[in-house]
From TrEMBL:
Entry superkingdom: Archaea
Family affiliation: Belongs to the UPF0047 family.
Protein name from the UniProt record: Secondary thiamine-phosphate synthase enzyme
Gene3D superfamilies: YjbQ-like
Coiled coil regions in record: none
PANTHER family, A to Z: UNCHARACTERIZED PROTEIN YJBQ-RELATED (PTHR30615), UPF0047 PROTEIN C4A8.02C (PTHR30615:SF8)
C-alpha cells in the first residue's frame, strides 16, 4: 500500500502512525509491518511525538548536516544537507504486528521526516505474516 504525505516546510516531522496502522490487515495475527520511504531526501523513524522533542530532532539534524556547508553535491541542486540528513535517519522501519495492530511502545510513533520540502511524498507500507 502506498500513502501520500504532503509537507509544508523544508524540514518537518509528521506523525503517520494512524495512517500506517490503517494499512495493517485486521486478520494479521502476527507479523511485521515495514514502512519504506522511496525518496533520497526524506526518512522515517520511530520515536516520541512530542513537540519539544521534534524541535530537538530538527536542531540535531541542522547541526549534523548544516545547510550551505560547501558540499560537493550542492553544485547540482543545492540540497546535499537533505540527502545527508536522510542518510542519518534511514529509509525504513520495521514494526511488529500483534493481533492486527502495530505493537509500538507506549510513547512510540511512526514519524515521517521531510528534509527537502515542501513536497508531496509517498510511503510504502507492507506487512508480512510471521
Amino acid at each position: 500500500m502506498s500513502l501520500e504525505i504532503s509537507t509544508d516546510e523544508r524540514v518537518e516531522l509528521l506523525d503517520v502512525t494512524s495512517e500506517v496502522a490503517a494499512a495493517v490487515p485486521e486478520e494479521l495475527d502476527a507479523g511485521v509491518c515495514t514502512v519504506f520511504v522511496p525518496h533520497t531526501t526524506a526518512g522515517v523513524v520511530v520515536n516520541e511525538n512530542e513537540s519539544r522533542l521534534l524541535r530537538d530532532v530538527e536542531r540535531l539534524l541542522a547541526e549534523l548536516a548544516p545547510r550551505g556547508d560547501d558540499y560537493d553535491h550542492d553544485a547540482i541542486d543545492d540540497n546535499a544537507d537533505a540527502h545527508l540528513r536522510a542518510t542519518l535517519l534511514g529509509s525504513n522501519v520495521s514494526i511488529p504486528v500483534e493481533d492486527g495492530e502495530l505493537a509500538l511502545g507506549t510513547w512510540q510513533s511512526v514519524l515521517f521526516v521531510e528534509c527537502d520540502g515542501p513536497r508531496t511524498r509517498r510511503l510504502r507500507v507492507t506487512t508480512t505474516p510471521s
